[in-house]
Amino acid sequence: MLTEQEEEEEAFTRHLRFDIPFLAKRLSEATLQVLDQVTTRDIKAAYFGSSTGAAAALVAAAELGDTIGAVVSRGGRPDLAGESLQRVKAPTLLIVGGSDIPVISLNEEAFEALSCEKALRIVPGATHLFEEPGALEKVARMASEWFCNHLQPMARRS
Questions:
Q1: Could you tell me if residue 28 is inside a domain?
Q2: What is the pLDDT at residue 10?
C-alpha cells in the first residue's frame, strides 16, 4: 500500500503504520480500482488484515459499505478503527492468540462496538504473531471458513 519512497521512510520512521486513515484510504482506492476491472465484476471484495492493517481494513470496509463481503482480523488492532467500527456492514471475524493478553481485551472492546455479524475466536496458546506450531494453520482454517460462508458473487454492474 506504500510507494517505494514511503516504504524507505517507513523503515526508519515507522510513521505510517499507525496512520489508519491514510492506510484505509489507500486500501479503499485499491479495492475500487480492482473492482472496476472487467475480469472482477462478479466478485465481492474481502479483507484480511493483521496488526494495524486490520484497523485500516475495518475503516475501509466502513467506507465501502456493501462492496465488502467479509473481514478477517488476525492478531489485529481493530480498536484503532475507532468510530468506524459502528459503520462496518461486512461480517467480521476477529482472531486473537490466547497468550496475547493485551490484544485480547482490545479485540473484545472492538467486538462490542461492531454492529454487523461478528465473531471473536481465540487460538489457545498462540502469541501475537501466531508463530507456534500449527497456530497459523488454525488461523487459515478459521479465515477460509469465514470467507467461504460469507462471500457470494455480486450482482453484475452495468
A1: yes
A2: 67
